[in-house]
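Propose amino acids for all 340 sites.
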């Protein structure tokens, strides 16, 4: 029976949560920096770090209060060790390790993508190992075979832009602010299908890799060649979303077929996209497969997934009492090695 505090600070969200191995998620809190970065059209790393510094302790206090416990009840602290912005990661790592030192409890450095990958296990119903995971965040697009905690095999990934980046860059070209994925999806609802036909990169490549950088060029061309009135913007948004979603859904189905597995887990911010969910559900239904998603609030960055991954790692005795820390801004999920 363990209580784990999770700290997420890899990018533009400060997320804190308390996860109990028997009682589940007790409380969580999130501060998003989106409004602050929106002014600059993207995340400004230095501003991100400073904002994490401002919010991390008040959020920890809030979360502990909401869970009706005290700092002394916490058994271990999990923090995002990477990948992400180094300054931002250092805030969570230093606060996590200092607090753990003060409380004399162990720490666990968590891989941000492992947090996303395991987050559907927090939902009900939860998938069971093994499953195929489609990881679609702002920086990553990967198809992974997951046989257990820490047992990940890469099946395919993007060769250039991530799906989230394709959403964000298309949204930016359409004047939708940052990050524009959700805004583009909203605008696409009023768009007309079929007016613009954008490329489906690598749809027939025969492997499970992706490429989305050509799509933003196609969106750029479409937006330069047309007067960008409200309807045209919506039509382009609709076409961009359709292209991204079709490629993701087809490749995810190919991964299920290739692996022979019957469960697909979708994680990361783009997993909040309703059209993606609808297409995946329909395609999976036809093959007698099931698709699992995290609750909407846990699709994008949050502390719950870090606390939860920490709790699972704790069961494998991955926690340390050594309070020196380093962050890993670039860190391949398959190289997970918690002993270094
Ligand atoms: O997982 P996440 O919060 O952060 C990273 O770890 O990168 O994902 C953020 C990404 C952004 O690219 C954002 O535009 C996208 O998820 N996103 C969406 C939607 N909600 C968030 N993309 C499409 N449709 C959405 N509804
Ligand atoms: Zn993320």
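Proposal:
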């Amino acid at each position: 029976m363990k209580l784990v505090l999770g700290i997420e600070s890899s990018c533009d969200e400060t997320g804190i949560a308390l996860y109990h191995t028997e009682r589940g998620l007790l409380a969580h809190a999130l501060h998003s920096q989106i409004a602050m970065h929106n002014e600059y059209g993207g995340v400004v790393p230095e501003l991100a770090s400073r904002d994490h510094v401002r919010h991390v302790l008040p959020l920890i206090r809030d979360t502990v209060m909401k869970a009706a416990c005290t700092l002394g009840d916490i058994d271990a602290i999990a923090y995002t060790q990477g990948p992400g912005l180094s300054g931002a990661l250092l805030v969570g790592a230093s606060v996590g390790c200092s607090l753990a030192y003060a409380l004399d409890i162990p720490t666990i450095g968590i891989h941000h993508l492992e947090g996303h990958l395991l987050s559907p296990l927090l939902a009900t119903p939860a998938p069971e190992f093994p499953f195929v995971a489609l990881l679609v965040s702002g920086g990553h697009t990967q198809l992974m075979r997951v046989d257990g905690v820490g047992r990940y095999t890469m099946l395919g990934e993007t060769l250039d832009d991530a799906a989230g980046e394709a959403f964000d860059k298309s949204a930016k070209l359409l004047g939708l602010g940052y990050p524009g994925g959700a805004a583009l999806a909203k605008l696409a609802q009023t768009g007309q299908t079929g007016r613009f036909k954008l490329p489906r990169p690598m749809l027939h490549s025969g492997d499970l890799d992706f490429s989305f950088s050509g799509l933003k060029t196609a969106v750029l061309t479409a937006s330069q060649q047309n007067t960008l009135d409200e309807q045209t913007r919506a039509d382009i948004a609709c076409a961009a979303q359709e292209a991204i979603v079709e490629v993701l859904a087809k490749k995810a189905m190919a991964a299920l077929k290739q692996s022979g597995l019957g469960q697909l887990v979708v994680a990361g911010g783009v997993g909040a996209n309703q059209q993606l969910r609808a297409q995946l559900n329909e395609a999976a239904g036809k093959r007698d497969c099931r698709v699992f998603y995290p609750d909407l609030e846990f699709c994008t960055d949050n502390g719950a997934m870090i606390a939860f991954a920490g709790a699972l790692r704790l069961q494998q005795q991955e926690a340390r009492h050594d309070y020196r820390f380093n962050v890993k801004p670039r860190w391949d999920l398959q190289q997970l090695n918690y002993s270094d």
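Strands lie at 3-8, 13-20, 24-32, 76-82, 107-111, 131-136, 141-148, 151-157, 263-267, 290-292. DSSP finds ten helices and ten strands in the chain.
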